[in-house]
Amino acid sequence: MSLVVDKLNKQIDHQATLDQISFEIQPGQIIGVIGRNGVGKTTLFRTINGQYLADTGTVLVDDQVVADQPELRTQLCFIDPLANFFRGATIKQIQWYYQNAYPDFDNEKFEGLLTRYGLTTNQKLRHFSKGTFGLFTIILSVATQATYLFLDEPLDGLDVLTRKNILGILIDEVADGKRSILIASHNLAELEGVIDRALMLKDGQIVNDYQLETMRSNARKLQLVYRDKQIPAVVRELGRIVHVSGRVIVVVFEDYTATVQAQLAATDPVFQEELPLSLTDLFLANLTDQTDFEVLS
């Protein structure tokens, strides 16, 4: 079973928030959806899940259009962290609602996770802290048994130990290859060791779709020092500059081939060193305005 998003477009207040968004997901992956604030991550989740109507484009589950077959929505789960209509309800009442909405709802898993984290079914959501609410939405999401889970900033407000436990739950959920989880988050350091793939949004479009294992094999982050204040053309054209300090340039080459290596050597840097490459580096490299680095300061 696959999830296909095909040329999805959505305008909010007459602005193109989503612009020709297309990607495909197979079960068994954890995907990070990353981008600056306001870039459209939450709008993307809401549109895929039918909270917003797409202007154009389609969402398909197993080659079937979700808008034409509403029962397919039971394969998708997005609990909007800004939704307030359940705030006055108890956990037990919410459990009843989701049992009816999701035919494969796993009560044993749901109640077991509640017990593990010290939650009881008579508690009302309006009494939860931000962190506890985030924890509960994850427990509720995984209990639906939906094939595709959408989590918007799921670790925000959680303490270190709870974040670690929650990430363990999410990894367990995809271990059998039957589910996928999409996570929109600004905490790229925590996503680093968890996600298999990163979709990077900019100006309402997916500007990069990274398979992280391939990225780690092909990309390089280098620190370069030159004698003069001009940034060589090969650095500007083939790399993505992350930082400039004095005569020191930190640059990411996403496809660091032998040809690129030879061209870089020909620029005769005074100093060159390979640095550890992180997901944050890719974020900065793609979302930083490169015109800020025309010459060394």
Question: Biggest β-sheet, characterized?
Answer: 6 strands, mixed
Structural category is alpha/beta
Oligomer: single chain
The strand line-up of the biggest sheet is: 6-7-8-3-9-10
Q: What series of H and E elements makes up the topology?
A: EEEHEEEHHHEHEHEEHEHEEHEH
Principal-axes shape call: elongated
How many helix segments?
A: 10
Query: Strand-residue fraction?
Result: 25-35%
Name the descriptors.
alpha/beta; single chain; about 300 residues; about 30% strand; 6-stranded mixed beta sheet
Q: Any overview of this molecule?
A:
The chain has 297 residues and is α/β, with parallel strands linked by helices. 31% of the residues lie in helices and 28% in strands. The strands form three sheets. Strands 6-7-8-3-9-10 form a six-stranded mixed sheet, sandwiched between helices. β7, α5 and β8 (180-184) form a beta-alpha-beta unit.
Can I get a quick summary?
By secondary structure, this protein is of the alpha/beta class. It has ten helices and 14 strands.
Write the layout of secondary structure elements.
Layout: E1 3-12, E2 15-25, E3 30-34, H1 41-48, E4 56-61, E5 64-65, E6 76-78, H2 91-101, H3 107-116, H4 130-143, E7 148-152, H5 160-174, E8 180-184, H6 188-192, E9 197-202, E10 205-211, H7 212-218, E11 220-225, H8 233-238, E12 240-245, E13 248-253, H9 258-265, E14 271-275, H10 279-287
Parallel strand pairs: 3-8, 3-9, 6-7, 7-8
Antiparallel strand pairs: 1-2, 1-4, 4-5, 9-10, 11-13, 11-14, 12-13
Helix pairs in contact: 3-4
